[in-house]
Amino acid sequence: MSQDCRIEGYAIVSADGMIADSSGHMPDALHNEADKKWFGRELDHVDVVVHGRNSHEDQPNSPRRRRLVVTRRIAAIEPNPDTPNSLLWNPAGASFHDACAALGLSSGVAAIIGGPEVYSLFLEIGYDRFHLSCSRRVALPGGTPVFAQGRQGRSPEDVLRQFGLEPEAERTLDEANGVSVVSWRRRASA
Known about the structure:
Distance between the termini: 25 Å
Strand content: 25-35%
Shape: globular
CATH superfamily: Dihydrofolate Reductase, subunit A
CATH class: Alpha Beta
Number of helices: 4
């Protein structure tokens, strides 16, 4: 994608900043219907969804979305035999720009939806926004953090600040279950 591309991350975390339990599984307690609906509406407006082999969005429109599946199992870019409108992409063998071009994209919005290695990769590429939902009534001690930097005990918010993003106002998605979202935006250059 060109400089016209916006890169936006999406994740839901537990109160302690984890996206999955210690085995890497996202427990049912972290699934929230209000967040799922909000997430689905957001993805309906993106041009490509980017995720690792074990991540997915499980939305009604999922089969129609263009996507890049990040994997080390190939050299660079290949068709994804399991999913139409999809390519397998190894960032070590091809740039993000090249992968998007192979999908026929030169601009638009890329939605990054996980897992931790993919989220961390795009910290380096550069998020324009990161939408961090939180389920305040769920704790996953010893779980899987959003970013690799979380393995050193850093919160997702600390990592986003380190990489130049600032929080906007918190929005409540499900008051009864303590679920909200904060969108983090790239700081304006001085």
